[in-house]
């Protein structure tokens, strides 16, 4: 990680870098803080996702200096002393205020860049969030180090325990809020610590791609359930989705077909694959599923050619994963920041790069019954839909199967399947 930073500094003409964890944000006209989210590059270099107000100073050829904010406070518990193997690699300086953390960061005659929110230190810096510097760091960020991979594998193992507990709660007839509570208990994480808001969707709620509500009322037991939820480990995320059915044989058969489709795509993933082409392959396979299960009246080839598959799968196949759930650099194809935008027919595709060893990415095809998209079909396309089948399956909302996958030189390592196998 230090080598990447030093190379980026040399290429962009800076002598040093200050990475700011970020401030605590207070709700307007109140005294409560929003949940804290640390600057990604801070937690990449020191595994402290809750180090409010701390700063990491990096100068090539010197040990990193961590200014760790540990105020004297009796209203809130101050941060604990840092511990772990990594503390031996930094010069640790405990500070009692954000002002002390910011004082004298830059050095005379040297150009220091900043990443994050520098607050009072901004005046000392030559640049903050310099685009050229961030472009180089973001581009390299796609290639995970062994340490990063193991952090993500640990996050997958914890999330798998949560998914198992959530499935048991669904089987017992729990409401969405109760299922979410079961996930949190099993993972040992607070809701504010999760890398993203969990999608806990019973029945038709699964047709909302980023369903954000948690229904607290138990209703007549729903026959289907979609959970998209991950956790963080030392600042690195997992992102896993599974779909379940209960007493719904037709929908379960559709889930089984999507499971097979997803595993086919995982099997075709390797270094050198163009992810845009793999996304197109997902739609080719989905067209076959639509035809096989009688969701369309036309052939699979016609469903693909006319864009019918995009009505049932409007999002992209997946994205880079790491310090953030939708990690940086997914559409960046050079260290200088050159981008490759997704094709017009798939505008939401977040990853457009050719896959390389070290990438950790998601493979998450879906099949949804989204009323607004189905209603918006042109008349010619409406005739290609077998509406009686669609209407029968509409109450189940939709299906998504998502794994986190490491691309290696000789194949892949499916972190999610590995985690579920270990969880039992």
Description of the structure:
The protein is an alpha+beta fold. It is 34% helix and 15% strand. The chain is built from 14 helices and 16 strands. Strands 4-3-2-1-5-6 form a six-stranded mixed β-sheet. Strands 7-8-11 form a three-stranded antiparallel β-sheet. Strand 2 and strand 3 form a beta hairpin. Helix 1 runs antiparallel to helix 4 and helix 5 crosses helix 14. The longest helix is centred in the middle third of the chain and has 26 residues. It starts with a helix and ends with a helix. The model has no long low-confidence stretch (mean pLDDT 96).
SSE order and pairing:
Blueprint: H1 2-12, E1 16-20, H2 40-45, E2 55-58, E3 65-69, E4 91-95, H3 98-102, E5 112-115, E6 127-128, H4 131-141, H5 146-171, H6 176-187, E7 199-202, E8 224-229, E9 232-233, E10 236-237, E11 240-245, H7 249-268, H8 275-292, H9 300-305, H10 308-312, E12 360-363, E13 366-368, H11 371-375, H12 379-382, H13 387-393, E14 398-400, E15 403-408, E16 411-414, H14 415-423
Parallel strand pairs: 1-5, 3-4, 5-6
Antiparallel strand pairs: 1-2, 2-3, 7-8, 8-11, 9-10, 12-15, 13-14, 15-16
Helix pairs in contact: 1-4, 5-6, 5-14, 7-8
């Amino acid at each position: 990680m230090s080598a990447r930073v030093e190379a980026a500094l040399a290429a962009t003409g800076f002598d040093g870098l200050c990475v700011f964890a970020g401030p605590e944000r207070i709700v307007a006209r109140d005294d409560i803080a929003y949940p804290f989210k640390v600057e990604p590059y801070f937690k990449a270099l020191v595994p402290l996702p809750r180090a409010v107000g701390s700063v990491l100073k990096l100068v090539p050829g010197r040990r990193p200096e961590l200014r760790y904010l540990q105020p004297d406070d009796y209203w809130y518990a101050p941060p604990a002393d840092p511990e772990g193997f990594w503390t031996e690699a930094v010069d640790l300086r405990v500070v009692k205020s954000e002002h002390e953390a910011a004082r004298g960061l830059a050095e005379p005659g040297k150009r220091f860049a900043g990443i994050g929110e520098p607050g009072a230190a901004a005046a000392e810096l030559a640049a903050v969030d310099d685009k050229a510097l961030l472009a180089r760091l973001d581009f390299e960020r796609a290639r995970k180090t062994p340490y990063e991979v193991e952090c993500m594998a640990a996050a997958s193992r914890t999330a798998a325990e949560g998914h198992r507990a959530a499935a048991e709660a669904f089987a017992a007839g729990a409401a969405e809020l109760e299922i979410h509570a079961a996930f949190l208990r099993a993972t040992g994480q607070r809701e504010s610590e999760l890398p993203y808001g969990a999608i806990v969707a019973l029945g038709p709620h699964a047709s909302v791609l980023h369903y954000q509500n948690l229904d607290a009322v138990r209703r007549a037991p729903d026959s289907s359930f979609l959970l998209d939820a991950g956790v963080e480990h030392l600042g690195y995320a997992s992102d896993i989705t599974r779909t379940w059915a209960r007493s719904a044989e037709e929908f379960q058969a559709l889930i089984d077909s999507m499971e097979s489709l997803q595993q086919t795509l995982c099997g075709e993933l390797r270094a050198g694959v163009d992810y845009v082409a793999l996304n197109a392959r997902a739609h080719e396979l989905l067209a076959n599923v639509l035809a096989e299960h009688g969701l369309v009246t036309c052939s699979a080839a016609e469903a693909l050619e006319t864009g019918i598959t995009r009505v049932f799968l409007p999002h992209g196949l997946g994205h880079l994963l790491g310090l953030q759930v939708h990690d940086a650099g997914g559409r960046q194809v050079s260290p200088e920041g050159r981008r490759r935008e997704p094709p017009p027919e798939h505008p939401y595709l977040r990853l457009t790069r050719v896959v390389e060893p070290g990438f950790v990415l998601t493979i998450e095809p879906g099949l949804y019954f989204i009323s607004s998209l189905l209603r918006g079909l042109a008349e010619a396309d409406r005739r290609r839909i077998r509406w009686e089948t669609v209407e029968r399956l509409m109450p189940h909302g939709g299906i998504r199967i998502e794994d986190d996958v490491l691309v290696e030189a000789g194949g892949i390592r499916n972190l999610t399947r590995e985690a579920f196998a270990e969880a039992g």
